[in-house]
Design goal:
Structural class: alpha+beta
Protein name: Chorismate lyase
Order of helices and strands: EEHHEHEEHHEEEE
CATH topology: Chorismate lyase
Number of helices: 5
Helix content: 10-25%
Shape: elongated
Largest sheet: 7 strands, mixed
Oligomer: single chain
CATH architecture: 3-Layer(aba) Sandwich
Low-confidence stretches: 1-17
Strand content: 25-35%
Radius of gyration: 18 Å
CATH class: Alpha Beta
Number of domains: 1
Length: 223
């Protein structure tokens, strides 16, 4: 299993947006294998750390995606998604408990690396935290860092496989067609709950990672 324990590998491409072509990535066997290895590496990093924001900052710095490895949350205003059907049970709240929604794009430099939908319980945060979430673009994970929260991943799905279905071995991959490798807009998605030190869930987040996480020269790149 490519993604490891408790995760799912999907081979059906995402159709929500037009696919992205990253000019540095050639459509050949080596590039496809390297892209898969990098996505697996990012997935492992995200699964092993509680804050996606800090993980993306490390990823941004390691792969030189921007002069400064700083991830900022750009809020998407005017959108309000209803709470998923099973979310109140997962958050352990009653039918009358207020829940707030926040949608952000996490960007490093000019690259939007993740688009996140977040439903959180304001009564389980401090007044200062709620005020900061309402009035700033500070990433959620940084705002609630003082809660010393833990993260429980509910699902981790690879939304695009660089390897054609049934061609897991390099020897069976097609030869280079001299084109750039086209990737869908979303390549990886995580669904997770955040818990405070009292083991109370206070946030449900769905994070959709974009192909911009690979917006750098692949290993061994030759123009």
């Amino acid at each position: 299993m490519w993604l490891g324990l408790g995760s799912t590998l999907l081979l059906t491409p995402v159709h929500a947006r037009e696919p992205d072509a990253l000019p540095l990535w050639h459509d050949d066997a080596t590039s496809r294998l390297e892209a898969l290895a990098l996505l697996q590496s990012l997935n492992a990093e995200l699964l092993s750390h509680p804050s996606a924001t800090l993980t993306l900052e490390r990823w941004c710095g390691a792969h030189h995606l921007a002069p400064e490895a700083k991830v900022v949350a750009e809020r998407v205003q005017g959108e309000d998604k209803p709470l998923p059907a099973d979310a109140r049970d997962q958050l352990q709240i009653g039918t009358d408990e207020p829940v707030r929604y926040r949608r952000v794009q996490l960007a490093c430099g000019g690259h939007v690396l993740s688009e996140a939908d977040n439903w959180y319980v304001p009564s389980r945060l401090t007044e200062a935290m709620n005020h900061e979430l309402d009035t700033t673009d500070t990433p959620f994970g940084k705002v609630v860092q003082a809660l010393h929260f833990r993260r429980q991943t509910l699902s981790a799905e690879l939304l695009w496989s660089p390897l054609p279905q049934g061609r897991e071995n390099e020897a069976s991959l097609p030869a280079s067609r001299g084109a750039t490798l086209v990737m869908p807009h979303h390549v990886l998605q995580h669904r997770a709950l955040l818990f405070d030190q009292s083991n109370r869930p206070f946030s449900l987040v769905v994070e959709s990672y974009t192909s911009q996480v690979l917006a750098f020269a692949p290993p061994g790149y030759r123009p």
